[in-house]
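Q: Can I see a sequence and its folded structure?
A: Here is a first one.
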Amino acid sequence: MSRAVVAAIEGGHGRPNIFRMKQTFFRRLAPLLVLFGLTIGGPAAAPAQEIGGDGALLRSIEQYFDGFKTLQARFTQYAQDGSTADGMLWLKRPGRFRFEYAPPNDILLVGDGTWLIFYDAAVDQVSHLPLNSGAPRFLTAEKIRFGGDIGVTNIERDNGMIAVTVVDRTEPGSGSLTMRFEENPMVLREWTVMDAQGQATRVVLRDIQYGPDLDNDFFYFTDHDRKKDFRVGTYQ
């Protein structure tokens, strides 16, 4: 399986469930925990020093997110070891997302607002992990706002692109999320998750569609999903 899956930054919760998994399933799941920041050992990286940032720029990014509640896109994911994975994703605020990985990676990730549900169809194994912090919480928040629990640690501008790095103040040292936007017009093009051990996973978006009609049932894991042909997206 490709060493890549989606992005976000959660803390190290849910460990007992992880260690009860069969060894084969755990080996397949472990790289995905890096992507979601669910680290299982090692020292935590020091939190970045917070900066003041550009208030007007951050407000414009907030207004961009305010402009849609649902999103569909294709993505390519790049892991630090050089491996890649393609797929489709759907987001619905607040709190819901679905990531499908294209063949040969038989992986489905669903966020139902409470749980991150990981399904590996190749071995027919399901895991539920708490979804209570990090990039999924930030990107699917009802109102995306900088400040409060979301600390801005870096802002860069280069050739019409903006990079904004944030950390979760409720999970010091858990890692960071860097989002890259095209500035004019404002479009989220990619994000990179850096976990507490310094492992980076990058997700690049394309074919973005705003405002698709997505029922909440689309973001639940059901018996219909627990099969080899769980995908609803189209893949070449």
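Q: Show me another, different protein.
A: A second, unrelated one:
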Amino acid sequence: MSARYSSAIFVIFFPAIVALNSCQQLSPPLVIPCYGHVDSISYHFDTLLIKENSKWSDITDAWVYLDNNPVGAFQMPCTFPMITGSGAHTITIYPGIMINGTPDTRTKYPFYTYFTETVNLTQGKTIKFEPSCTFTSFAHFAWMEYFSTGCSITKNNIMSDTIMTRVTNGGYPYKCYGSAILDSIDPSHYTNVYQGISDTMTLPKDGATAVYLEVYYNCNAVVSVGLYESVPGYALPGQQLAPVTYLFPTGNGWEKMYINLQSIVAANPKGEPFTVYFEMYRNSGTTSPTYLYLDDIKLID
């Protein structure tokens, strides 16, 4: 009787002992990460018109690589872990942006240079990086407007009740900028809609080449941004395409947006040359003027 009882106990508990030993054998060793920290990515760009600094950019994210392997994309300021041993490693950081100002659509900006540095990492320790960037050597500027010497945005005579004028008394970094105002106070100058258009331009339509419109803006109404395509039988600027995105009221401050035009250009391969438009309607129910201010416009491919 006791022999059978002892055997039963062994049969019941032997699998549990084996499982316990197996768990102990399969447990991975504890890995202590190395850490990196980035407060921001600075930006500089020298032109004949103006020297730009980080006030003209809106780099929100750091896309981090460790020895050419992706670590992750992090909204700055950020501290990030890197699973590696202590020693010399190469860290590469790409500037990241929000596409069309949308937090859910983020990407490495293809026209900014990346930062790379070989450093000695220590497990459990944090090293701070101070990346900087400028435009890549292959960035092609199809259109640039700083309003330093004039205003290249003209009104669409069919659509617009008013024009964009050049303001010269702005404060740094907006010493000069473009201003379009829809006046709802003076009945003799009553205006309801504004549409400003750029000169025509040829853009890559292969669907693989990045095309971005950078714009600084300050507005108190919703502004549509899009393209006109040239179509036989239509007078220039051509046929208006649906808006690519919208500029929303900024609360009397300036904001930056990177607008992706790659898809709309590729979807209209016969639409060359293209023209950029900005369109807004007067705010109803208020006596305050509706305004749109623009600066530092770049169309890059």
